[in-house]
Design brief:
single chain; 181 residues; alpha+beta; Glutaredoxin; four-stranded mixed beta sheet; two-stranded antiparallel ribbon; 6 strands; 31% helix; 16% strand
Length: 181
């Protein structure tokens, strides 16, 4: 709790600095094989970070996510999928089961990471930044398949709630804008 408070205070100080925005570059996450991945390794890429689940009413969004990944991946765009089991136990599987599900049912080729918590006291540091800033808001994730757009420098720039389809004009135009910078 103390660390989250200090992070929030530090984050507020940074966000109030000239043109500062929340940045994920210093975060390290685990891939599905439990290897450390520095998000700074994606510098120069536009990212769409999504909390995903295989037993959710929004699970069909994997299809749209894969479609926009295919459309923009050669232009410097990457989707990062983070399974979570925070909403109605809709992602009970192991990493292996999750990857198999995504591959067999939706031909997912974008990176899927180790399951994380996106809410509560054990929220991952990545989702703490994504959901606690002036740029995309300070509210908790409400359900699976919330999406966060990150620019080429690791700055969090936009948030899309679960109801927003990945192939919507709103998301695609935001991706295109960030790719054009």
């Amino acid at each position: 709790m103390k660390n989250r408070f200090l992070s929030s205070i530090f984050g507020l100080f940074n966000l109030n600095s000239a043109k500062s925005s929340p940045n994920i570059s210093d975060i390290v996450v685990k891939d599905v094989h439990l290897n450390d991945v520095k998000l700074s390794s994606y510098k120069g890429k536009v990212l769409l970070i999504v909390n995903v689940a295989s037993k959710c009413g929004f699970t069909k969004q994997y299809e749209g996510l894969q479609k926009i990944y295919d459309e923009y991946k050669d232009k410097g765009f990457v989707i990062l999928g983070f399974p979570c089991n925070n909403f109605g136990s809709q992602e009970p599987g192991s990493n292996k089961q999750i990857i198999e599900f995504c591959s067999l049912n939706y031909n997912v080729t974008f990176p899927i990471f180790h399951k994380v918590n996106v809410r509560g006291n054990n929220r991952s540091p990545l989702f703490d930044i994504l959901t606690n800033n002036f740029g995309t808001g300070t509210s908790s994730i409400k359900w699976n398949f919330e999406k966060f757009l990150v620019d080429k420098n690791g700055n969090v720039v936009e948030r899309f709630r679960s109801l927003t389809e990945p192939t919507s004009k709103k998301i695609k135009s935001s991706i295109e804008f960030e790719l054009s910078k």
